[in-house]
UniProtKB/TrEMBL annotation:
Segments traversing the membrane: 21-43, 92-111, 123-144, 150-169, 181-202, 208-226, 293-310, 322-346, 353-370, 376-402
Encoding gene per record: LOC110981754
Major facilitator superfamily (MFS) profile domain location: 27-464
Principal location class: membrane
UniProt cross-references to PROSITE patterns, sorted A to Z: MFS, SUGAR_TRANSPORT_2
Name of protein: Solute carrier family 22 member 15-like
Keywords tagged on the record: Membrane, Transmembrane, Transmembrane helix
Length: 492
């Protein structure tokens, strides 16, 4: 009897020893990868400074303008390295914007490469180039060289990390996607705390840059330890290779799986013609997938806008910057783990919609309470901001899983790349809103979150449903097929 991929994966042990081993390796990379994305939180931090030989409360308002600045010795950064203060302050911000633009370009370009050439190759080469560029950035001689390196870091990080996420997801049976995907994203949150510890002990920005590369050295061994996605192989007509890989999994999981037991359904013909992975155009060619993509793009935009908006807002709380930064990541862990329960018991859509509603109302509440200078009001505002931060962590975590389950295998990486592209636009806009006033910023965060929640109500539920393999699966409604009870639990 021929099996679809989820059935075959269950036959060889589901999330057995070998799958857990592969996941652990990807998780470690996820933890140390965080420093590459958020590095400018410390590498671009502005130290306290004064004007050499002159006394002024605000060195930027001196007449004539100050020509030489003296920075505190607590830490160094690109700001103190190249005097990026006062009129030059905006140049430090360009580096972060370029990283986001690079991320946007990377998820588009390398997302398509991943669907055509494979998840593993894209992931490995993306991460190798990422480390190389990060290493080179430590020797930048001016802000222009460094800013260009940030664009390349964003490019390879965006495309490479997305391929790694898909590689992880496609090896999971339906009943385990929520939990394992959530734990995977907790790795990034943990990475914020790890990076904060690195920054605390290494106060020189060039040394800190080099230290972030060190844990990634073992990455060159990944191709020897993790195979290509068997699901991708099967969806691209390489059925024999996929079956051999599944038999290998069964053997490593301690199961006796006969050669005749694992025979995959060949959907290569279904993936041809209008369902072939020609690129992003295919995502908007058919009505059901087109509507689904538009809603998901708006959702990802809203999630990233609110996430970075609330993160930037939290940085104004004061106190020890290393502790605050670590806590901003740690606070996401219980939120993400809590979302696992909701994703499995309430469903993907209710969790997504509910968390966005919480984010929306929390942001609107922050905006309303900001009118008062009363201390109690400030405490209430801070509380709402933290509730919003936890809720957006749930929403963003849910978006990765929910979107992956609603998109076809033949275009999943490309589609996720487009969604991530929409998210990066939100990430670029978020830091540009506060100059217009905090009320305007929080109003934008709240309205976009609430609008996305309403749009997500039009999406189908994907809990305990088969992953769609082709565009035809989505258009025909095959992806809405409910799995049998034993498959929901991921057992054979």
């Amino acid at each position: 009897m021929k099996l679809d991929f989820d059935e075959a994966l269950e036959k060889v042990g589901g999330f057995g020893f070998i799958q857990r081993f592969h996941f652990s390796l990807l998780m470690v990379i996820q933890i140390f990868h965080a420093a590459f994305i958020v590095g400018l939180a410390f590498l671009g931090k502005e130290p306290n400074f004064t004007c050499k030989g002159r006394i002024a409360r605000n060195p930027c308002q001196l007449e004539p303008p100050c020509k030489e600045f003296v920075f505190s010795k607590d830490f160094t950064s690109i700001v103190s390295e190249w005097d990026l203060v006062c009129d030059s302050k905006r140049e430090a911000g360009y580096a972060q914007s370029l990283l986001m633009f690079g991320f946007l370009a990377g998820v588009i370009a390398l997302g398509t490469v991943s669907d055509r050439c494979g998840r593993l190759k894209t992931f490995v080469w993306g991460m190798i180039f990422l480390v190389a560029v990060q290493l080179a950035s430590a020797f930048s001689q001016n802000i222009y060289q460094y800013s260009f390196s940030r664009f390349l870091v964003g490019f390879f990080s965006g495309g490479g990390s997305l391929a790694g996420h898909i590689l992880m997801l496609e090896g999971l049976v339906p009943g385990q996607r929520a939990l394992i995907s959530t734990v995977y994203h907790c790795g990034f949150a943990s990475g914020l705390a790890v990076f904060s510890a690195m920054a605390y002990y290494f106060r020189d920005w060039r040394q800190l840059t080099l230290i972030t590369c060190l844990p990634m050295v073992f990455f060159i061994f990944i191709p020897l330890l993790i195979p290509e996605s068997a699901r991708w192989l099967a969806s691209n007509g390489r059925i024999q290779e996929a079956e051999e890989q599944l038999h290998f999994f069964g053997k490593k999981n301690g199961l006796k799986v006969s050669q005749s037991l694992i025979t995959l359904i060949d959907k290569t013909d279904d993936a041809k013609g209008k369902n072939s992975a020609d690129g992003m155009v295919d995502l908007f060619r058919t009505p059901v997938l087109r509507r689904r993509m538009i809603v998901l793009m708006i959702t990802w935009f809203s999630c990233c806008l609110a996430y970075y908006g609330l993160t930037f807002g939290a940085s104004n709380l004061g106190g020890n910057m290393y502790v605050n930064f670590a806590l901003s990541g740690i606070i996401e862990i219980p939120a993400c783990l809590l979302s696992t329960v909701a994703l499995n018991w309430l469903g993907r859509r209710p969790t997504m919609v509910g968390s966005l509603f919480v984010v929306g109302f929390a942001c609107l509440g922050v905006m309303a309470l900001h009118k008062s200078e009363n201390g109690a009001m400030f405490s209430s505002q801070t509380c709402l901001a933290l509730i919003g931060k936890m809720a957006i962590a749930v929403a963003f975590n849910s978006a990765y899983l929910y979107s992956s389950e609603l998109l076809p295998t033949v275009l999943r990486n490309t589609a996720m790349g487009v969604c991530s592209m929409s998210a990066r636009i939100g990430g670029i806009i978020a830091p540009a809103l506060p100059p217009f006033g905090e009320k305007v910023a929080y109003l934008a965060f709240g309205i976009t979150a609430l609008s996305s929640a309403l749009l997500d109500l039009t999406l189908p539920e994907s809990l305990n449903k088969q992953l769609p393999e082709t565009i035809m699966d989505i258009e025909s409604g095959l992806s809405l097929t409910t799995l049998h009870p034993e498959k929901r639990l991921g057992i054979s």
